[in-house]
Design brief:
- The protein is of the alpha/beta class.
- It has 2 domains: 155 residues, CBS-domain (Roll); 226 residues, CBS-domain.
- α5 packs across α12, α8 packs across α16 and α9 crosses α14.
Length: 489
């Protein structure tokens, strides 16, 4: 394999394609591709994905007819609320369920400190269940020392292409990594740990009950490693897995199940502070924003602040082959369109962004969407009052809006992607609404914990620590924003 190059392997008869990173830029200058005028050359061999383009005919030719607008709106307003009950939890109090019952050792993937970033990336792409690989010192060790996930992959890609913004003490390291990547020198995970700025590992014993898990994850910790009495990792418990459990088994847990029919505005969940990015901004702006602010996803909005999509750190998996490299300097809307097109090709029907709810959505509606889309958050949009007697939609500002001047927008040649219509013409622009807030898995788990008499920590403390760990940011933190609409230009 070519060291320090992201690639996908196709069939054994297909060619193996790698990305040659562009010449590294001085990362400390906070320069970007669109500002420097740098253009990435595409003299690579055809990738497996590229060779498939046009053969067979486009899946759109065999797709099912698209829903009418009314049918789409009905689906978004009332998503399927099916639950997959597990009979072994029937009739049990959730406090009697052990953490170890929710995890599986099959979800644990290991790499070593001396594993190259590229091999760690391939292991991450294969581990679709927990979306994380655990890092140990060497193959003889059973003690975890770190993790590698899509946030880390995002940070590494930004360094390789010269778009990261390091603090002064890390400029030399960032330049060294970018130079080695250009020279195709293998880089082990050990050498790039400071780039990732990892949080402390959180472990829970498998025989502890869920009360401990819901307090920890409801305090803002995204995942915990589950161990046995010998300290051996037997699984990974994420916020989403815990939410899925309480959704599927909620009928057995009366206190939590009684919360589901209530409206979001009545249960008091959701943040008053949000960060969004304009649909016409380059994708690199979104990736940098997530990395700098310690976020796992950002809302994508049009010029009217209507939600038209969502970009998460997990979406960087679409950027790990040569054919996808031009996406970095195309727009966020272009990237969303490509993702939806690929999903449509896989599922045989058109895909639509469904990452929004409104203050009058029920908690059940919100959780059903989170579980169905495997998302970490839902964006709250304005909605008309459901009845003349109901109070108006509450204001949840401030919104931090990150547009990019049209003069700085650049598209790279050589991409094999469909043209993208204006954001205002996509389904999300008229099926969603104006962005006013966000509700996360942390918010919901915190609500569950408090409703059952537990005392989770304030999630804002964990969020603040996460943003402080991304101290290389050259953007002001959301914590210092004014209590009004802040449009950055």
């Amino acid at each position: 394999m070519d060291p320090n190059a992201f690639y996908f392997r196709g069939s054994k008869d297909s060619k193996e394609t790698s990305i040659s990173p562009p010449p590294p830029q001085r990362t400390g200058s906070a320069s970007s591709l669109h500002k420097s005028g740098h253009v990435i050359a595409h003299s690579h061999r055809s990738s497996f994905a590229e060779n498939l383009r046009g053969l067979p005919p486009s899946p759109r030719n065999q797709r099912h007819p698209s829903f009418t607008q009314a049918a789409i709106q009905e689906l978004l307003n009332h998503p399927p609320a099916s639950r997959q009950h597990n009979p072994r939890f029937a009739g049990r109090d959730w406090r009697e369920v052990a953490i170890g019952e929710l995890v599986s050792k099959d979800e644990v993937a290991w790499v070593e400190m001396d594993t190259t970033v590229e091999d760690a990336t391939m292991a991450l792409l294969k581990n679709t269940s927990s979306k994380v690989v655990i890092v140990r010192e060497d193959a003889t060790s059973s003690i975890p020392v770190s993790t590698f996930d899509y946030n880390d992959l995002n940070a590494y890609i930004l360094v390789v292409v010269g778009l990261a913004h390091p603090s002064e003490d890390l400029v030399e390291l960032y330049d060294t990594v970018a130079t080695k990547a250009q020279a195709r020198v293998s880089i082990p995970l050990r050498d790039v740990q400071p780039i990732f700025r990892k949080e402390s590992l959180v472990t829970l014993e498998g025989d502890e009950d869920l009360a401990k898990a819901i307090e920890v994850l409801g305090s803002g910790v995204h995942r915990a490693l589950v161990t046995n009495h010998d300290g051996e990792v037997i699984g990974v418990l994420s916020q989403l897995k815990l939410i899925e459990f309480f959704w599927n088994e909620g009928v057995n847990f009366r206190v939590i199940d009684d919360l589901y029919p209530r409206l979001l505005r009545d249960v008091g969940v959701g943040s008053h502070q949000i960060i969004a990015i304009n649909a016409d901004s380059p994708l690199t702006e979104a990736l940098n924003l997530m990395n700098q602010e310690g976020l796992s996803s950002v809302a994508v909005v049009d010029n009217g602040l209507n939600v038209v999509g969502n970009i998460s750190s997990a979406d960087v998996r679409h950027l790990t082959n040569a054919a996808s490299f031009p996406l970095l300097q195309n727009s966020c809307m272009h990237f969303i369109s490509v993702i939806l097109t690929e999903q449509g090709a896989e599922k045989g029907k058109d895909s639509f962004p469904v990452f929004h709810v409104n203050p009058y959505s029920t908690l059940a509606h919100t959780v059903a969407k989170l579980v169905a889309t495997h998302s970490h958050r839902m964006w709250i949009v304005e909605s008309a009052s459901p009845s003349p007697s109901a109070p108006g939609t509450p204001s949840l500002g401030p919104t931090v809006f990150v547009p990019t001047p049209s003069s700085s927008q650049t598209s790279l040649s050589g991409g094999h992607f469909p043209s993208v219509p204006p954001a205002s013409t996509l389904p999300g622009s008229y099926l969603s609404g104006r962005l006013i807030g966000v509700v996360t898995l942390t918010d919901i788990l915190n609500l569950f914990a408090r409703s059952t008499g537990l005392n989770p920590s304030d999630p804002s403390e964990q969020r603040a620590r996460r943003r402080r760990s991304s101290s290389s940011s050259i953007r002001p933190s959301i914590e210092s924003t004014r209590a009004s609409l802040d449009i950055r230009r």
